[in-house]
Amino acid sequence: DLQMTQSPSTLSASVGDRVTITCRASQSISRWLAWYQQKPGKAPKVLIYKASSLDSGVPSRFSGSGSGTEFTLTISSLQPDDFGTYYCQEYNSYYTFGQGTKLEIK
Amino acid sequence: QVQLVESGGGVVQPGRSLRLSCAASGFTFNIYAIHWVRQAPGRGLQWVSVISYDGMNKYYADSVKGRFTVSRDNSKNTLYLQMNSLTAEDTALYYCARSYSGGYSSWFDLWGQGTLVTVSS
Predict the structure, then answer these.
(1) Pairing with A71, which of A15, B14, B16, B107 sits 20 to 30 Å away (CA)?
(2) Which of B69, B65, B70, B79 is nearest to B112 (CA)?
(3) Per-residue pLDDT tens over the stretch A65-99
């Protein structure tokens, strides 16, 4: 079965910091990867699709890169509203999610 | 208003059944594949099932295969999830989510707010 592994599991950073979250697939998924942000008590919201395409309305400080098995989500300058949990998801086979990265603002 | 609204959650005893519904509005429901995704309390997201735009094709996670059945009524713009033989491991918030395109190889661009299922004696 395809596995998606995110790192780190938790992350604490300050406003203005550059933040990077990594997602690794156990087998190649080409660029069939999305990133979601979930705030407490809310449904997930897509940020990035096809590994690097920014969804409509998502701030340009968010970016995605990678292909095959290694992917990254980068926040260029962390803002207070960016707290939450971030999930990667492959949609090449059975929509497997990573285990999540909880981002806390210092 | 483009939205998905889940309902039907509640407390159910182990071994019993429950049917969830997901009502769509504000978009052309019958051209989209729709998924069920669940999230156990304090845990991550787990994909459960998908149904094609016309209801002809259905796929399930191994953990629910043979126990859960997804269906849809395009005349009512509603998706269903029939859950049988429930166990404590099925306790979760259940979301329905729209596939961006009509096909399967797509991300989820619209989510409902979720309905909570608690399996407990």
Answers:
(1) A15
(2) B79
(3) 999 999 999 999 999 999 999 999 999 988 999 99
